[in-house]
Amino acid sequence: MLLLAGCSHHRSVLFTKMNAAETGIGFVNANTDRDTLSILDYLYYYNGAGVAIGDINNDGLPDIYLAANQGGNKLYLNKGNFQFEDITAKAHVGGQADWTTGVTMADVNGDGLLDIYVSAVGDFDPRDHNGATHLYFRNSRNQLFLNNGDNTFTECAEKYGIAVKGYNTQAVFFDYDKDGDLDLFVLQHSTHQTDAYGPVSLREKYSPESGGKLFRNDGGHFTDVTKSSGIYSSALGYGLGVAVADLDNDGYDDIYVSNDFHENDYYYLNQRDGTFKEINSLAFGHESKFSMGNDIADINHDGWLDIMTVDMLPSDEKVLKSSLGDDPLTLYLYQRGFGYNYQYSRNCLQLNTGRGKKFSDIALYSGVAATDWSWGPLIADYNLDGSDDIYISNGIKNRPNDLDYVKFISGLPQNHSDTGKRTHDKEILQHLPSGAWHNYIFEGGAECKFIDRSIDWGFDKPTLAQGAAYADLDGDGSIDLVTNNMNEEAGIYKNNTRTQIPDNHFLTVGLKGKAPNTFGIGAKLFVFAGGRLQFQELQPVRGFMSCSEPVLHYGLGSLTSVDSLILIWPDNTYARMGRTKADQTLKISYDRSKQDSIQNYQSFIDLLLHTGHDSILTDITAASHIDYRHEEDISFIDFTQQWFIPHEISTLGPKIAVADVDGDGLEDFFVCGGKGQGGTLFIQRPDATFSRSPDSAVFLKDRAAEGVDAIFVDVNGDHHPDLYVASGGNEYAGRAEELKDCLYLNDGKGHFTKSTGLPDLFENKSVVRVADFDKDGDLDIFVGGRANSLIYGKPPASYLLENDGRGHFTIVTATAAPGLAQIGMVTDAAWVDVDKDGWPDLVLTGEWMPPVLFKNHQGHLVREELTNDDVDLSGWWCGMLATDCNGDGYPDLLLGNYGLNSKLTASASAPLKMYIGDMMDNQRMSQIVALQKNGSYYTFLDKENLEKQLPFLKKKYLTYGEMAGLTVEQIFGKKLDSCALFEAYSLASTVLINDGHGHFRSQVLPYQMQWSPIFAFAQADLNGDGHPDIMTGGDFDGTEPYEGRYDAMPLGLYWGDGKGSFNSVLPLPSPLDTLSGEVRSIQPIRLAGGGRAMLIGFNNGPLRLLSYR
């Protein structure tokens, strides 16, 4: 028994942490809060420092440089077999800065030796200090240690013009102007000062110590070109992370900067003329709010580099509910008014879906969004299986965002002594809880999914690791890790992959570039092996304040060779190599005589990556004279009417209806308007342009109502398409006139008059669909109810309207379709003959409900099973299209759901739950959403949000810590017994495949369709191969800040094979790569002259017309 117990402590892990006795590295970055200096004086006092790894003596063994905030840096020479020698003193690289931060290794002078550049904070002025202000870190400036070639260095920063003094975080050397030498970007942070608060226009106000600085290498001396380069250098810039890479694959390197607090990250696109253009708000739907470090890598093997930023969202429920995170809605909207882009406190994994012009955050889908107080992500293939993994350094000495701490300090009197010291410093610091946490490592898998392997792979102990870098320290082909830890020994982690998984192979590539860029910084290597692409760009600066070994590492899994390699050098020449054996370090030297020049870079990349799809779709909106913008009533916010509603439901438009209204053989269209806008009719001309119909004035009379759906239908048998417009919007309740639907009769010439043939339908609707359900020769109508605008969750009314043949309708729901009237919160519907018996059946989708089939038994609709287990398909369905996906002649059902890229999760074993009940005994219903974590259910909202409507919680739990970590049952107890319970078991968009007998088999749609809610589908042969393809439309902004908006995929494109399979087209072709917004409808329309196009309706945005061949 004792033997077994003892053995259990020596489990096999992928990484083994080596101790100082083994390695000789006893470095500790010591941090102590003192009376004269603490986090109360310097907000980044707990941020730690960086590490750089590189072979300083060219002996084939990477050496380690560790930075200390105070007390001296250390350089360790690698002696082999994880033995290191401290050579700091004789190398003269200890540094003299008062506060050291980041460190970089690069060959600055082009002599073939790695130099060391150390960043430091100097002349720090805490302008938010309430006492007498004074400067900290007076003796600090950046230092450049030039390698003398004998394991000694000479400090030369002043000589080279880069002894930068300011709030420096990190630096990166790269050749931004393609002149062959390495230029320098210095990242700087800010302080909480007057110039750090205000509109984004403050970015233009230059700050000498904050933001960032760009230096051009002019041959042995650097020139500050910041002010003419397009780089922001202002007090708004809280720069904590920087990475450089060619994100748009144009041959020129771009810059990505992670900014803390309210300022957005910066994405500087290289303009190829010595300047940069910042395009963050165009390229990203949202980003991390408290961005720390970042990394850039091609995680999905498509040849386009992706970006990861880390934040401080905890996965632990206790810590999560005890911590300050996203802003309340009012502040969130206030910041938008100042021009800031959307930010959320969580990690972001920004997939390059638009050729560097557009990125999609899929971190929640991928499982890497919540890693607590994180610093440095490092993306690499740690287990050599051919897929990138993600390591994240973690932990903060004390948590300044603890809610009880924030509450405590906000109640303190602001008394100060004559010396300017806060009298409450010691008491304040004692209330700070520890933030030690384990480092994370995620194993990469299929479909951009990552699995948390932190415990399994040896990262189970709480730590305070900030800077981190990787290298193959022992030359075995696997990547080892080094972390710069606060108040504990540096972490030296040996990778055991080569012994534990010997069947996994590797290829390591070192470059000898053209002088003065002797290490080939900026080179790109495409490795083709086993039918798969692996792509890396050589950029050592990555993570947080750190620099990894300037070598490329590839895992190959079971492959013993690679098929071919294509290397693009920094001067945009390239070389091809054939089959290459695995398990070696390949040394490639620049030889101009063996390289070919790239004549057209974009064409070269398109050919290499097979991405030439730009000719498929064309935006012809302007050419077609369509000038229309949907106007949502942005003054109405659902959350102010129902505080606990899971999300807004007032942004359902615009829907579009298409028909030839004037009988000229050309299709026209009607688009629903928002409240106060009214609908608009567009008439197509013979030249395929459109004009607004003068009859739009008829629809303007009903502009007080919000049209949520519309359909053309001949209601009176005169063979002219009349128009039905359903009303809703969630703003009105009861018998409000604005809830009435509208029916407009067409005289055959496109002129409409309002009919009185509809009954009054006082409900917030969502959808209208038509069919002759009773086969009496006229068209009847189904109208779906979306939600009760006063009590979310209370079933709204849906209606089946029978036509008398003359356009007069009667509600027959109760008699013709029992159970349909209160079926639930309907989002979409389709009349479809599922079994081809000649009678149209009705299929519905909705929220908190499965897809529902009402089978038509000769004019009598009866609810029947759609699949073998309809209950497991209960979801938050958003849209539907009935179409034959697999070419068997039977209609299948494409179902758009809320998606899997969300904090909300649901499964058959752990459904998403919502309790609705009178929690306060005041006749006001509350909706409590709860989700499962580790077998228990917790409220989705935190104490701060719940107690707004439920003040008894404030009295019951006096501190945040008391309530944090409690289950929903522990918080509400018996109150839940009287609540209505709603459950959703699936949030995945799905296709239901018809078996030919009207019964369906469910199949989850491609994983790319899970990155956003899908509201619309359209099917057509878009690429001309004879097989129907799919276009999807989605995204959703109507959420609380903590949930975050869904903006990953407004429009998606999928090639069909005619057999039911659809393959995602990524990166997105033009113009999809630049379009953004919430898509609510996609309607095919035929154009004059035989043209084909798609009308795209964006909520609160412009209408688009995209033609296809």
Explained architecture:
Strands 35-34-38-39-42 form a 5-stranded antiparallel sheet, with no helix packed on it. Strands 56, 57, 58, 59 and 60 form a 5-stranded antiparallel sheet that branches. The chain is built from 20 helices and 75 strands. The protein is mainly β and 1109 residues long. The chain has 3 domains: 22-500, YVTN repeat-like/Quinoprotein amine dehydrogenase (Methylamine Dehydrogenase, Chain H), CATH 2.130.10.10; 618-908 and 985-1108, Methylamine Dehydrogenase, Chain H; 912-982, no CATH class. 10% of the residues lie in helices and 34% in strands. A hairpin with a 5-residue loop joins strand 71 (1051-1056) and strand 72 (1062-1064).
Nearest-integer average pLDDT: 95
The percent range for helix content is: under 10%
Rg, Å, rounded: 31 Å
Instruction: Identify the strand order in the major beta sheet.
Output: 35-34-38-39-42
End-to-end Cα distance, whole Å, is 74 Å
Structural class: mainly beta
Just give the CATH class of the largest domain: Mainly Beta
CATH topology of the largest domain: Methylamine Dehydrogenase, Chain H
Q: Rough shape?
A: globular
Strand composition percent: 25-35%
Detail the poorly predicted runs.
1-9, 128-132, 416-420
